[in-house]
Design brief:
Elements (H helix, E strand, L loop, with lengths): L35 H13 L3 H16 L3 H12 L5 H21 L1
Helix pairs in contact: 2-3
């Protein structure tokens, strides 16, 4: 019989249901990150202090710096527009892992 149907079995001390390992119904959980509210207030203050036009101008200035040869600006523009690049050796490792997974799948079948 599962813990859902049997209220006589108390959850573990960490609030998890004994049969499923999930948090038991009514468990209030942890207090979370104590700094999250403070960080959110900082972000809100920053967002409220800048306009869309100002951000657009900053990005135009960044693009101009990139076009003028600033390597850091060029890297930032490309990262923001195209996503960060993945090192080539990591791509090789990913390919190797994919091959290993496929080999394991064929063995299991």
């Amino acid at each position: 019989m599962s813990n859902k149907d049997d209220n006589s079995i108390p959850p573990f001390a960490d609030g998890r249901d004994r049969s499923t390992g999930r948090f038991a119904k009514g468990w209030r959980g942890g207090s979370g990150n104590p700094h999250a509210a403070l960080v959110m207030s900082f972000r809100r203050a920053m967002l409220e202090s800048v306009t869309t036009e100002q951000i657009s101008q900053m990005f135009k200035d960044l693009v101009d710096a990139a076009l003028a040869g600033n390597a850091e600006a060029r890297s930032e523009v490309l990262d923001r527009c195209c996503g960060r690049s993945v090192p080539a050796d990591m791509l090789g490792e990913i390919g190797e892992l994919a091959e290993n997974i496929e080999e394991l799948r064929t063995r299991i079948r």
